[in-house]
Please model this.
Amino acid sequence: MSFSEWLDMGGYALYVWGSFGMTALCMIAEPLLLNRSSKAIRQRIARLNRIEG
Amino acid sequence: MQSKLFNWFKFSSPATFYPLAGSIARFSWLITLALLAVGLYMSFFVAPTDYKQGEGYRIIFIHVPASWMSMFTYLVMAFWSILGLMYNTRLSSMMTQALAPTGAMFAFVSLWTGAFWGKPMWGTWWVWDARITSELILLFLYLGYIALHGAIDDKRRADKAGAILILVGVVNIPIIYYSVEWWNTLHQGATIKMNDKSTMDETMKITMLIMTFGCWAYTIAIAMQRVRNIILEREHGAQWVRELIGEKA
Model:
């Protein structure tokens, strides 16, 4: 079975990859957003520490 | 006199829980990546082709775990909400808040993958079926909680209001679960039954369970990371936070 045949998913390519693709998108975006907000919180606290000394 | 066998409240203070949440998150991430790698490989290369739906049925390997997680996460949020209301422990409400976005994500994924499975098999992206409609209500409950909690400035009041909303909405979970029995609408019945033999090929079942545990570990890892952010945000004035973060971040 060639790669393109496998990719075709027996004609259901749009539906299978539409499902797994969206899920992957969500489960990758969520941790990235979480890390970004973690960094933002830490920077804000560090700035508060600097100001209040 | 401390006669209790185990001091349940040892980890209920954010300061002592913060480092523990970090190690749980790291450990859960390892399990998540391992399980999802094995699960995805089995989903596409090990599980056999379905006699009726061909390759299209493989969507089950993400649709069912996401749907289970969307319901289970809500029950865990209800548990923390009860604890938060009973003991007035801040960390319980923080856990509820930490789980909400992930629960909402899985409810959305459940609806999305369901639609992408329904189109080829039922011929429609959407139908006002009992289970699909109650899952949509679940998504709105999640989003409603996030909006309600975010809208109230005083976090203690936001926690209380949020906990009550979650507990009012918890009746929706059995409705989703039993909807396929009560109303005989389009969505098929439970394939994995707790009471008797499941009507599913062994390999397919194992693959689906591995994916489910993978999504479970993912939810724990994300919730632990997010609860750390919430703790830092709420306790930013506390001495231990200031020392932890220091002057440079």
